[in-house]
């Protein structure tokens, strides 16, 4: 069973008089232990699609299933709970909080859960992404690649089923980008997590299990399945 | 576990503290507004407390008295013997002291003259304190003279004073503790010295405290007077009377002025919180995206505002305490008066107001940030 599944999803935006369909009858699915890449030119609806998969946005039409449950009509608070327990995010420009150390940034998603102590897991994750000697550094003391690895560790802290990455290599040089992709490939197996990445970086296609090509809100090609 | 570790168990406090530390100048400026507000509320409040304390201590000597004179509907030109007897029957728990009054000129041997009021009274002890020794409870011969008059005229204890062709030996000097003065000096003589006056000008009833005095005043008013006819005019100074009312108005006015500065300060906090949440919009979007609940974002930002208020409030209270010590030293001569509840309460109120005003100012920015859709907020 797919961990996340979009069925016939349409997302329309009102732009003045004009109605724009950012996604036009899109189907999508991803399984645990699989990396799916959504690729397409800018403005093709990649980010909108990632927002649907990440339960940050709701579709105008169609349904979203998470782990077999229909979450299409969930309220904002219910969606928050789902994101909290099952989804990890990696953003293009990392989005680490500048006043927190690497460890604290990794702990952030579970910070308000005083019932669990995630401190050890946070340090363990940082060690696994090769930042064992940077635990108490602040983001401004880390390089771009290191920051992205902190962001990946943060996305994994809640033991998610899905890890979403929006242009994970977008702000990194070629070599660092490759290191990050190798890291992600390793983690999807270790953590048995579905990785959905959005990119226009063709380099990513070497690492991915399947690719969804998106043009003007329409899926034009699905490969690798 | 240290206090810091303990506080760190509250994620809202931890996050709020870190956020405040990010832009220290802005935090300090916002807190400065609160500090000024708290200091103005506290020091104005403590100043009125000091004035009130000083005034009550001075009013204390008449606060427990009932003063009775002839009413406007009375047939006689004073209070009669019969009426005094009735009062003595009615009032069992206080001293009834009838007095006859007049005025005269006292002269000294060196020819200097002073106009004084004359009081003929038997129970002088109930009304007067002497510079040394006790005033007699039955003044049958001799006289008492105010200390200042005696000094002016060079009269000492034992010297004679003339009134109405008779000489009276000065038995004691009256200590003038009353700051409100009642004008010049006073000569106190036995009641018999004013025997040509048939009625008493004033009857003073000295009770244990101002509450009892007020009660007695009401009782006598009910007995002697009706709604249309005032046989006796009965005055009490209980509850510090009109002076107290004036001070209350004054203190309210001063607190209102202090309150305005706190309102200004909370508008500054509103502005700072709004700016900082707008600046951090993307960041709050990340928090929401990774599953931080709306209520948790709300709590974090409200805690920021509360911390800022508490910080400003604390510094403000410390400065106000210092100001209070100075104010009390200047007005009452006792700096430690600032630590009594009547003055100290303003520090508690000041701190409370600072925190409450800051939280109120934080509500809108916090609500706005928490309810921003994460997908919109992430775009920054």
UniProtKB/TrEMBL annotation, chain A:
Keywords: ATP-binding, Nucleotide-binding, Transport. GO terms for cellular component: membrane protein complex; plasma membrane. InterPro entries: AAA+_ATPase (IPR003593), ABC_transporter-like_ATP-bd (IPR003439), ABC_transporter-like_CS (IPR017871), ABC_transpr_LolD-like (IPR015854), MacB-like_ATP-bd (IPR017911), P-loop_NTPase (IPR027417). The lineage of its organism: Archaea, Methanobacteriati, Methanobacteriota, Stenosarchaea group, Halobacteria. It comes from Haloferax denitrificans ATCC 35960. This is ABC transporter ATP-binding protein. The keyword Oxidoreductase does not apply. Coiled coil: none annotated. GO terms for molecular function: ATP binding; ATP hydrolysis activity; transmembrane transporter activity. Residues 4-222 form the ABC transporter domain.
Automatic annotation (TrEMBL), chain B:
Residues 257-371 form the ABC3 transporter permease C-terminal domain. One of its GO terms (cellular component) is plasma membrane. It comes from the Archaea. It is a multi-pass membrane protein. It is found in: Cell membrane. Keywords: Cell membrane, Membrane, Transmembrane, Transmembrane helix. Pfam families: FtsX (PF02687), MacB_PCD (PF12704). GO terms for molecular function: transmembrane transporter activity. Residues 27-222 form the MacB-like periplasmic core domain. The keyword Protease does not apply. Belongs to the ABC-4 integral membrane protein family. This is ABC transporter permease. It comes from Haloferax denitrificans ATCC 35960.
């Amino acid at each position: 069973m797919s961990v996340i599944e979009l069925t016939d999803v349409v997302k329309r935006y009102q732009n003045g008089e004009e109605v724009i369909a950012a996604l036009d009858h899109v189907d999508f699915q991803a399984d645990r232990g699989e990396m799916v890449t959504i690729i397409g030119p800018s403005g093709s609806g990649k980010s909108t699609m990632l927002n649907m998969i990440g339960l940050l946005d709701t579709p105008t039409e169609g349904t979203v299933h998470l782990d077999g449950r229909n979450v299409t009509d969930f309220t904002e608070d219910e969606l928050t709970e789902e994101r909290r327990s099952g989804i990890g995010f990696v953003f293009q420009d990392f989005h680490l909080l500048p006043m927190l150390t690497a460890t604290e940034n990794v702990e952030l998603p579970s910070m308000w859960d005083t019932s669990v102590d995630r401190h050890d897991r946070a340090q363990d994750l940082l060690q696994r992404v090769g930042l064992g000697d940077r635990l108490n550094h602040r983001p401004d003391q880390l390089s771009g690649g290191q920051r992205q690895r902190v962001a990946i560790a943060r996305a994994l802290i809640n033991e998610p089923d899905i890890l979403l990455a929006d242009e994970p290599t977008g702000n990194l040089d070629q070599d660092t980008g490759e290191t990050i992709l190798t890291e992600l490939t390793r983690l999807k197996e270790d953590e048995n997590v579905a990785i959905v990445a959005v990119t226009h970086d063709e380099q990513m296609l070497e690492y991915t299990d399947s690719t969804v090509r998106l043009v003007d809100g329409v899926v034009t090609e699905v490969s690798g399945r | 576990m240290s206090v810091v570790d303990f506080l760190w168990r509250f994620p809202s406090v931890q996050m709020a503290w870190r956020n405040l530390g990010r832009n220290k100048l802005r935090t300090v400026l916002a807190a400065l507004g609160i500090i000024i507000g708290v200091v103005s509320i506290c020091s104005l409040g403590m100043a009125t407390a000091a004035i009130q304390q000083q005034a009550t201590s001075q009013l204390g000597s008449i606060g427990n008295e009932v003063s009775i004179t002839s009413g406007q509907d009375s047939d006689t030109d004073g209070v009669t013997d019969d009426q005094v007897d009735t009062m003595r029957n009615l009032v069992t728990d206080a001293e009834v002291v009838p007095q006859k009054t007049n005025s005269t000129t006292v002269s000294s041997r060196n020819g200097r003259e002073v106009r004084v009021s004359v009081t003929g009274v038997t129970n002088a002890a109930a009304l007067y304190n002497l510079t040394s020794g006790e005033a007699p409870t039955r003044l049958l011969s001799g006289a008492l003279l105010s200390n200042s008059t005696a000094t002016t005229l060079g009269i000492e204890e034992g010297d004679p004073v003339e009134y109405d062709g008779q000489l009276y030996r000065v038995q004691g000097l009256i200590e003038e503790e009353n700051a409100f003065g009642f004008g010049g000096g006073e000569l106190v003589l036995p009641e018999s010295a004013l025997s040509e006056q048939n009625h008493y000008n004033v009857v003073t009833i000295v009770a244990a405290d101002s509450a009892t005095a007020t009660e007695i005043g009401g009782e006598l008013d009910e007995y002697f007077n009706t709604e249309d006819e005032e046989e006796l005019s009965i005055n009490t100074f209980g509850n510090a009377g009109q002076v107290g009312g004036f001070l209350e108005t004054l203190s309210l006015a001063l607190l209102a002025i202090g309150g305005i500065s706190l309102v200004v300060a909370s508008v500054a906090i509103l502005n700072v919180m709004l700016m900082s949440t707008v600046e951090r919009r993307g960041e709050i979007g990340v928090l929401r995206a990774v599953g931080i609940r709306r209520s948790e974002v709300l709590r974090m930002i409200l805690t920021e505002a509360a911390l800022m208020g508490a910080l400003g409030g604390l510094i403000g209270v410390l400065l106000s305490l210092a100001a209070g010590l100075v104010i009390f030293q200047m007005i009452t001569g006792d700096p430690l008066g600032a630590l009594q509840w009547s003055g100290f309460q303003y520090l508690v109120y000041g701190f409370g107001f600072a925190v409450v005003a800051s939280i109120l100012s934080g509500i809108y920015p916090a609500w706005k940030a928490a309810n921003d859709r994460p997908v919109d907020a992430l775009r920054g």
